């Protein structure tokens, strides 16, 4: 059944909607409403902008290729964020609209910075 659901999900909703496990069934979520995804051991917790969370029994590496790289950026080995919901960018972390502070791993800093256009400053190399 899981294989059928994935195949159905890929055909009907290629990028804007996912089906996620929820209790005894599946819940349809809009991808653009995902604020961030957090890795926790062998699971991923999908945090929605409305505060709801969905825990999935899969590694982050299974979810990441399904996400639009223009919308979602991996900023730490344990976090992928929807850049639409980044409220503040600091050298070592970002603050999301919901107030969550997420550390930016050194490995991911330059790629995240390249996703933004900085106005009003000449020195943004930090």
* Percent in strands: 35-45%
| Number of strand segments | 10
Rg from Cα: 16 Å
CATH superfamily heading of the domain at 34-113: LytTr DNA-binding domain
Helix content: 10-25%
**Which structural class do you get from the secondary structure elements?**
alpha+beta
pLDDT averaged residue by residue:
84
CATH class of the domain at 34-113: Mainly Beta
Overall 3D geometry? globular
Which sequence of SSEs, written as H and E, runs from N to C? HEEEEEHEEEEEH
CATH fold field value of the domain at 34-113: OB fold (Dihydrolipoamide Acetyltransferase, E2P)
Model description:
It comes from Segatella copri. It holds the Pfam family LytTR. The chain has 126 residues and is of the alpha+beta class. It has a domain at 34-113: OB fold (Dihydrolipoamide Acetyltransferase, E2P) (Beta Barrel), CATH 2.40.50. Helix content is 16%, strand content 39%. The strands form three sheets. The chain has a five-stranded antiparallel sheet. Strand 4 and strand 5 form a beta hairpin. The longest helix is centred in the first third of the chain and has 11 residues, at 2-12. It starts with a helix and ends in a 13-residue tail after the last helix. The relative contact order is 0.13.
In short:
Residues 24-117 form the HTH LytTR-type domain. This protein is 16% helix and 39% strand. It is an alpha+beta fold.
Key features of this structure:
LytTR_DNA-bd_dom, 126 residues, OB fold (Dihydrolipoamide Acetyltransferase, E2P), single chain, LytR-like, three-stranded antiparallel β-sheet, five-stranded antiparallel β-sheet, 3 helices, alpha+beta, phosphorelay response regulator activity
């Amino acid at each position: 059944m899981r294989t059928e659901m994935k195949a159905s999900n890929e055909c009907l909703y290629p990028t804007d909607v996912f089906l996620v496990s929820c209790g005894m069934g599946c819940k349809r979520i809009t991808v653009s409403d995902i604020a961030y995804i957090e890795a926790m051991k062998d699971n991923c917790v999908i945090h929605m902008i409305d505060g709801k969370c969905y825990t999935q029994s899969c590694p982050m590496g299974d979810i990441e290729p399904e996400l639009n790289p223009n919308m979602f950026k991996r900023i730490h080995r344990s976090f992928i964020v929807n850049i639409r919901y980044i409220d503040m960018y600091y050298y070592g972390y970002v603050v999301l609209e919901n107030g969550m502070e997420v550390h930016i791993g050194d490995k991911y800093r330059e790629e995240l910075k390249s996703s933004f256009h900085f106005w009003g400053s000449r020195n943004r190399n930090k």
